C-alpha cells in the first residue's frame, strides 16, 4: 500500500532514511526474538526438571511418613508433625533478562531449622521426610521463579513478534511501494519537463517569416 505522501525529492530522501531505520530495527528485533525464544526454551527445560524433582521429593517424603506411621504410634507421629517449627518467609528480588525484569524467590528464616520432636517417639524416617520437604520447598521457590519468568518472557515474545511482523509485512513493504511510486512520479515529471523544453526549443529555433516594410500592405507579383 502506498503511503499518503507528496511525490517530491525531499519526501523520497526522507523515506529512504526511514526505510534504512526500519530495516535495521527489524533485524535488531528479529535477533531479540531469537534470543528470547532461546531463553524461553532453556527455562522451560529447567522448569520441567525442577517439577520432576519436586514431585520425586514429595513422593519420597510421603513414602517415608507412611513407613514411619506403621513403625510408631500414629498419635506420636501426628503430634510430632503438629509441633511448631521455624517461621519462614519469602524474599523477592529481581533479575534482568533482555530488558525484562523477572522475579527471584528464595526462602527467608530468622534462625536455622531446629528439631521439634524427640527421637524416642518418632522414627528416623520422620527426619528424612522433613528434610525431603525442606528440599522440595526450596525447589518450589525455584520453580515459581521459572514459571513467572516463562510467563513474562512468553508475553514479551508475543509483543516482539507482533512488532517484527508489522515491520516485515506492513511498514517496510509500504515504504518500498511508496518509494517506487514517488520514483515513477518523478520520472514522469522529468519526462514531461524535457518534452516541454524540447517543444519550446523547437519554437525558438523555427525560422521566422520575413516581415514587410509597410505594415498592412502585402506584396503581390505584378
Keywords:
single chain; mainly alpha; 222 residues; Helix Hairpins; 3 helices
Q: Could you please describe the fold and organization of this structure?
A:
The chain has 222 residues and is mostly helical. It has one domain: Helix Hairpins, CATH 1.10.287.3240. Helix content is 69%, strand content 9%. It contains three helices and two strands. The protein has helices spanning 9-71, 74-82, 124-205; strands at 88-97, 100-109. A two-stranded antiparallel sheet has the order 1-2. A hairpin with a 2-residue loop joins strand 1 and strand 2 (100-109). Helix 1 packs antiparallel against helix 3. It is rod-shaped. It starts with 8 loop residues before the first helix and ends in a 17-residue tail after the last helix. The model has no long low-confidence stretch (mean pLDDT 79).
Q: Secondary-structure element order, as H and E?
A: HHEEH
What is CATH's topology name?
Helix Hairpins
**How many domains, in number, for the residues?**
1
Estimate the mean pLDDT confidence: 79
Number of strands: 2
Poorly predicted runs: none
**What best-fitting shape do the alpha-carbon axes yield?**
rod-shaped
Ends apart, CA distance between termini: 74 Å
The largest pleated sheet is described as: 2 strands, antiparallel
| Discrete helix count | 3
Q: What is the strand content?
A: 5-15%
Please give the radius of gyration in angstroms. Answer: 41 Å
CATH class annotation:
Mainly Alpha
Amino acid at each position: 500500500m502506498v503511503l499518503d505522501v507528496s511525490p517530491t525529492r525531499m519526501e523520497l530522501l526522507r523515506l529512504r532514511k526511514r526505510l534504512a531505520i526500519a530495516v535495521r530495527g527489524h533485524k535488531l528485533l528479529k535477533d531479540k526474538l531469537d534470543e528470547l525464544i532461546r531463553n524461553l526454551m532453556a527455562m522451560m527445560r529447567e522448569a520441567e526438571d525442577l517439577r520432576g524433582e519436586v514431585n520425586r521429593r514429595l513422593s519420597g517424603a510421603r513414602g517415608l511418613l507412611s513407613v514411619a506411621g506403621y513403625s510408631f504410634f500414629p498419635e506420636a507421629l501426628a503430634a510430632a508433625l503438629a509441633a511448631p517449627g521455624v517461621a519462614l518467609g519469602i524474599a523477592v528480588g529481581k533479575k534482568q533478562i533482555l530488558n525484562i525484569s523477572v522475579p527471584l524467590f528464595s526462602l527467608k528464616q530468622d534462625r536455622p531449622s531446629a528439631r521439634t520432636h524427640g527421637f524416642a517417639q518418632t522414627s528416623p524416617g520422620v527426619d528424612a521426610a522433613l528434610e525431603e520437604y525442606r528440599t522440595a520447598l526450596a525447589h518450589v521457590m525455584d520453580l515459581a521463579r521459572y514459571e513467572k519468568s516463562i510467563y513474562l518472557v512468553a508475553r514479551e515474545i508475543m509483543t516482539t513478534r507482533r512488532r517484527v511482523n508489522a515491520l516485515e509485512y506492513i511498514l517496510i513493504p509500504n515504504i518500498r511501494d511508496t518509494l517506487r511510486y514517488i520514483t515513477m512520479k518523478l520520472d514522469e515529471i522529468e519526462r514531461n519537463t524535457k518534452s516541454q523544453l524540447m517543444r519550446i526549443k523547437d519554437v525558438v529555433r523555427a525560422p521566422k517569416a520575413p516581415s514587410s516594410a509597410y505594415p498592412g500592405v502585402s506584396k503581390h507579383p505584378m
